[in-house]
Amino acid sequence: MAVEAFLNSSKLLQHWPSCLLGLLLVLAIKYVLNQRKKSSKNYSTDRDGDIETEFEEEARGDLQPALEEKPHVQFVPGQTLNPNGARRFLELVRGRRSIRSFSPLTKPSLGVIEDCIRAAGTAPSGAHTEPWTFCVVEEASVKQSVRAIVEHEEQINYNKRMHPQWVTDLRPLQTNHVKPYLTDAPYLILIFKQTYGTAKDGRRKTHYYNEISTSISAGILLCSLQAAGLSSLVTTPLNCGPALRELLGRPVNEKLLILLAVGYPTDDCKVPDLKRKRLDEILVKY
Ligand SMILES: Cc1cc2nc3c(=O)[nH]c(=O)nc-3n(C[C@H](O)[C@H](O)[C@H](O)COP(=O)(O)O)c2cc1C
């Protein structure tokens, strides 16, 4: 037995150059595969990790774009607000303020809200994935449920979850966990980012840069509401997303980005005395 083992090991010793070569080859292949995996992960765009898991799957040979491949069409410039479009738009958006006292007595038509959401839907999006859902709530009982969820979580947020510095920074805005505007405002718009979609073949469709795309869309919505003479309040209630998603029966790929209150201000509505940064503080010319 011992002799046989000795003979085997000496044979191995004889062949050590080819063994070493084989080992080096295996290591080199492993290195190349690792590098390829790393470089595909570099394209990850979502901080929630959804895209990373998407790309961990090995690329198949039959990959198809999510959009139909067809010839491009002639670009036709859209309508402009000229003359002085930029100045007129500036005057419009300068008048926007976040309000926290909404009149429960006056209500814009749903058609106006729909037009504003149509405008929001014109936003650019990563690879034209349009990764947004706008849920419009006007039913009093649903608004009441939204308020109950938000006030419950916000009480914990203010008392425990938020850093004392955060609570201190909010003091000038005079906000707290009580949110009457959630039931007073005639409309609540819950803006969800779709973290992924479903392709025609049933596979997961990656929604690149879904948070940035949905935020741009929300910005257009704010401007449209302003153009319609409506006021709004952007809120981002901490820890409320899953409960609000369930309340509205939205699917798990949708994550709440913004809870927007929309309507008209009360006559005695007050806002914090805020100043905007000057142009030379936000513009750098090269
Ligand atoms: C991303 C984001 C999150 C916000 N979250 C809240 C919020 O949770 N509650 C709130 O009362 N206001 C919230 N606001 C409103 C800001 O406090 C408000 O925009 C800011 O004070 C400037 O005031 P203005 O909108 O009147 O210019 C939020 C605004 C943004 C853009």
Automatic annotation (TrEMBL):
Top-level taxon of origin: Eukaryota
Keywords per UniProt: Flavoprotein, FMN, Membrane, Oxidoreductase, Transmembrane, Transmembrane helix
Which BP terms in the Gene Ontology apply to this protein?
Answer: tyrosine metabolic process
| SUPFAM superfamilies attached to this UniProt entry | FMN-dependent nitroreductase-like
Cofactor(s) needed, names only, are: FMN
- Ranges for the Nitroreductase domain? 93-264
Which molecular-function annotation in GO is an example for this chain?
ribonucleotide binding
Q: Which GO terms describe its cellular component?
A: plasma membrane
Q: Does the keyword Flavoprotein apply?
A: yes
Q: Where exactly are the transmembrane stretches of this chain? A: 15-33
Against Pfam families, the record matches this protein to: Nitroreductase
Gene3D superfamilies the UniProt entry points to:
NADH Oxidase (3.40.109.10)
Query: Which family is this protein grouped under?
Result: Belongs to the nitroreductase family.
Q: What is this protein called?
A: GL24919
Q: Whose protein is this, by species?
A: Drosophila persimilis
Q: Which gene encodes it?
A: Dper\GL24919
